[in-house]
Amino acid sequence: MSFAAFKMMHWATGIEHCASGFITHSSADSTPKIPPITADDIDSDWTTSTKPIGPVPNLITAAANVLEVYIVRIQEEASPSLAHKAAAEPKGGGAVLAGVSGASLELVCHYRLHGNVESLEVLPNGATDGGRRRDSIILTFRDAKISVLEFDESICGLRTSSMHCFEGSDWVHLRRGREFFPRGPLVKVDPLGRCAAVLAYGLQMIVLKAAEASTGLTAPAEDSTFRTAAASRIESSYIVGLRDLDMKHVKDFIFIHGYIEPVVVILHEHELTWAGRVAWKHHTCMVSALSVNTTLKQHPLIWSAMNLPHDAYKLLAVPSPIGGVLVIGANTIHYHSQSASCHLGLNNFAVPADGSQEMPRSGFTTELDAATATWLTNDVAVFSSKSGELLLLTLVYDGRVVQRLELMKSRASVLTSDITTIGSSFFFLGSRLGDSLLVQYYSGVGAPTLSPGVKEEVGDIESDAPSMKRLRRSPSDALQDLITSEELTFYGTGPNNAQIAQKNFTFAVRDSLLNIGPLKDFSYGLRINGDPNATGVAKQSNYELVCCSGHGKNGALTVLQKSIRPDTVTQESLPGCKGIWTVYHKNLRSDSSKGVADKDEYHAYLIISLENRTMVLQTANNLEEVTENVDYYVQGTTVSAGNLFGRRRVIQVFARGARILDGAFMTQDLSLKSSNTEMNAASDGATVSSVSIADPYVLLRMTDGSIQLLVGDPYTCSVSVINPPVSENSDKLVLACTLYHDKGSEPWIRKTSTDAWLSTGIGEAIDGADGSTHDHGDVYCVVCYDNGDLEIFDVPNFNSVFLVDKFVSGRSHILDTFFHGAANNHINLTNNYSEDIGQVRKEATHNIKVVELSMQRWDSEHNRPFLLGILSDGTILCYHAYIYEVSDNASKTEGVISSQNSVNLSNTNASRLRNLRFVRVPLDTYAKEETPSGVRSQRITVFKNVGGLQGFFLSGSRPMWFMMFRERLRMHPQGCDGPIVAFTVLHNVNCNHGFICITSEGALKICQLPALSYDNYWPVQKIGLKGTPHQVTYFAEKNFYPVIVSVPVLKPLNQVLSSLVDQEVGNQFEHDNINMEGTYPTEEFEVRIMEPEKINGPWQTRATIPMQSSEHALTVRVVTLFNTTAQRNETLLAIGTAYVQGEDVAARGRILLYSVERISDSIQVKVTEVYSKELKGAISALASLQGHLLLASGPKIILHKWTGSELNGVAFHDVPPLYVVSLNIVKNFILLGDIHKSIYFLSWKEQGSQLNLLAKDFGSLDCLATEFLIDGTTLSLTVSDDQKNVQIFYYAPKASESWKGQKLLSRAEFHVGAHITKFLRLQLLPTSADRIIPGSDKTNRFALLFGTLEGSIGCIAPLEELTFRRLQSLQKKLVNSVCHVAGLNPRSFRHFHSNGKAHRPGPDSIVDCELLVHFEMLALEDQLEIANQIGTTRMQIMSNLNDLSVATSFL
Question: At what angle do helices 1420-1429 and 1409-1417 cross, to 10 degrees?
């Protein structure tokens, strides 16, 4: 492996930072919705009536380098329509709370940055101009980069408004000689948005001054009537050195409320101490409050407080009207303000500073180290502790004086990494150890009235049960006595005193974001429903990844399957099939009862088009062929079929005509031959090529490029043909067209037109013949011409409402050319496509055409339509519509109206969709295919309900599901059946909301989607373990998964203490001076042998192997040992353990061997211990090497042979110096990673039984994972380290710089940006290029799949040198020609991070596919331009990227 590609396949999901703010809308935009008062509210007390939920801000989350912005969509109690309610039910519904029956997160934008977000804050707009300005996002990156982003409505995405960098040679003095800083820059903002501050390099505070609302950076005054409100921005920045203010060790800082100028409070330690010296030196922390004057750049000290405990680590600013700051320590909470202070002890370790006065204690013991906190109301904060409990802290105050703090236990929830309040009714728990939760809270006074469906329950707020649970805050008895009427005197600020203590908080989990991190280990095993005969790419669907993820009570086994393998209900052979459709049939008699809702109606007929005939099957119960007894056209192939007139009729379209049927009887027969009178001679041979149906219209595209529209009359249930004016007055041929039906409670497209002209057309409800009304919405026709333009017409009048030049070039944003002119349509990255580039490149753009279009919007209030287009080279363009309102006088100045459009300007001007724009959505997981030149079938099928999901299905040689969740498309391939020719949905008795697909081999499969979570980068199934999983391995012969799990257990203290004493020396401590009461949490380890019970069902533990007390299982592996007595191989389960008993006891460990057998007639598993032995040193890794067992025992490795009853050592070697973290074996080579001393490369010689050290890496490196990388005949050694890098070494004894082979040489190095914990070697799949050369050495090429602690999965794959050079030069071009989010440089991100240690840079031999995917998102002209500049062609680059995609399409 000389060259490689780094490719991410599953991005990080563990949310580390979250914040909320008005990013996409200002607080004035969203009017508070007053929920309807229901009947049970009227009788209840007036104080509990539901309060309106105010404007709800956005949620911003950051997971490693993934930044996402969400809108919280609130669903109120009385929904506008029943259909909407039914559709939104599964989205975290549950009980009604404060007039809200559900809320869900909807994605606005998603970015993958070239850098990991270190901290994240929202710069508020201040209270000026009535909340019309929006907020901005401030991100910080290592070492001292700050980016400020704001939402730009015109591009429906984030735009960088300022960048501040304090790195490099000019700022090297800020480091003060230090190379390494334990944490990255930390940003905090002033609550009124006047400034922000960033703590970088430990002691440098960078102050960012916000621009005033009136300065010139915002929109000019004369435009302000129509311009959208500008966001808050940063004007300038300067540095304050905290060392000059006599601060040495800053722990945290925050801006506090209630001062005229911004005031920053800094928590710092003036003398360091540590746990061993706390008896002598404690209470070393203090807080200092500085007033920040940004204009004079002065910061006088206004107050400070000394004698805070040494473990204080966090500050929390108390909101107005109270003000002040809370200091959070592990055992205490302190409140300080300029005038008052008070504190609260949380456990027995809380001691007062001078030891004299008694400290108020909370009613229960807890610890608050590693807690996160946010404010629910102005005097109640919620804490999420390290054990996942929610605690509520109340400040009891009088005016502005806080008298005491009260802490109360609340509910258990997920282990959080960050927490933020969203508006006045929600908070979000962001977690990297479990799923993140959106929780609604409601604080009633007294007992809130809840709807009868709510159960009183105690327990976890868990994501798997969104049922509403309820909590009552009861103060402990000690606090009950304190509340007397004299003590609480309120100045009319609240209700009476009896009620203040009884503040009830009710919580409801409304939504959750799935997280699969941290991936500690994973294993590659077979799925239960795998197909043993599959080959090639289809074979990959037989495998799945079983991962150890989560921690503590959020620990889970996560089963990941990249490709969907549907559950087959039944399968038939049906060769020569061309298309397949299912249709409904509503007959009037049964329909009058309205027994079945629309979405639960069964399909009536299945129409199958074969090569020269059509089959019709009845689908109500079983599939029975009824071809002979129906009036369908069965003598030839069918082009399409569907329902019209509210499912009362079926239309079947064939090459030269169409039929309308009522059930099995024909009611109308249309011939399409001589309809086009003017071009009769030409179109005589023209037949129907593609069909699009939007009730009551049917759009036909003929083979000669003209289109025809069939218009239905719902009263007579008949259709008539009209020729749209499009095909007559232009010589442009229509290449693809589709009808778009704008359904829903309120049509969406209508909002993009400035006038209400649309509401008069066919928008009214049309009365059907059965007396029921059908809301038809608006219908539009989307057409793409052979010159690459796209036009949208309204139907049936065919007025042009939207036109895009060169849709085919795939620009990032498209808008109406008619209004905004061709010039502004190029939101171009490189210079505009100039004319003189030459004829060759012109040709290249001309032969790429659009071959298929589809536009769809699913039924929900806020959904925006998606537009999908397939190009002739296999590229898929996916666009998402959005609204950007352009004012009239803006378009006058911009509107360069092109000449051909200015004919009928006066009448079309009114009706254009001038506010409609589309933004392109990246589809980088998609491996595209060439469309064969010849007969093409329609590849896009829209599905509304397959297993409760909605989206597009893309058939063809690489079938793909596009599923719509939270306004984002999730793409999941389906590779198990090879190419899929046709697809349709099927809902009947035997197949509930399933589908039918027909493979290219001619098999008709009726399937259902497996019950997985699809709202993730890969489909996933989580199996909760209620413990922490540490390692998993796959027992291939028996299909088991042995997993190491540790469960926290509270043990009596004396039991724990006695185990810390070395048994051999005897008891050394006296029992008298130790207080034996109390418990201590310890981890108990066990190995569980698990297997899935049935497909995608729950997993069962078949057997458990418990460890001894204070014994940790470190590794579990399935080993194959050669039994020298019986002369045969045995497959055993080997476990390596260590006794963890503190630093006074010598380290010991055990090696355990088990045989695992399935008991023949039952599902239980018999586990028998074959061998166990105690050794010196921890047994941290083991592997089988040619029938022997290799153990890493402490600072040496020992090779044993197995006699059937004994392990006998045959060889040993005194590496590693410290502790083995991973051990890999190929043939007789051993690769070993040490925790501090990098990697060692050894070989084993059978004759003379020697373990020889071949070479090692002389640098110091903290390894996390190692693996061999095999490319043909080359062997490389890959290692990942704790600085999130990957290095690839090779062994070259002939090279002079390798010191006669003692030293491993570097072949490549790369910064991944995540901690890689496990590599897995997988063989590359064959691509189209490889099939041409038989017998090439490409068969023995392997990629490394890796998993990270951030929840991401990727791979490192070897590349040919020629491909590598081409992609590397493309990568260098893309660094400059793509606009990177937040202004980050991909090259600096991917540099090796040496963390201040001496490091000699290695070769740059890895290309970054995270940057290369941007090439496909460029406009076609820019792609050709860049490809030309690096001396290659676009086709060549695309095929290289595609081959890489195919070769690594594992799982």
Answer: 130
